[in-house]
Specification:
single chain; mainly alpha; 5 helices; elongated
């Protein structure tokens, strides 16, 4: 809801190109950002910056609910990501 209002205001002020550009940048940032679970998983820093949430600290930023899960094997995860698990 908040994002839709923000995009509507951008469209009124700057034209249709600005919300489209920001949407594309957000999509690229969310799809291209990946970190192994051994390093904390996908932090989404680029997406947070583009969405304007880089100055906010939320509960989910610190506690993701994965604290009790066993540590992931870094090498096995990288092999799956790069499709080297033949």
């Amino acid at each position: 809801m908040q994002d839709e209002l923000k995009m509507t205001i951008l469209r009124r002020n700057f034209g249709i190109g600005e919300p489209i550009r920001r949407g594309m940048e957000l999509k690229i940032a969310r799809e291209g950002e990946w970190r192994p679970m051994a390093l904390g998983g996908g932090a989404g820093v680029s997406g947070d910056i583009l969405a304007g949430r880089d100055t906010q600290m939320q509960w989910e930023d610190v506690y993701r609910g994965e604290e009790t899960r066993e540590s992931a094997d870094f090498h096995a995860e990288m092999e799956r990501k790069l499709k080297m698990d033949w």
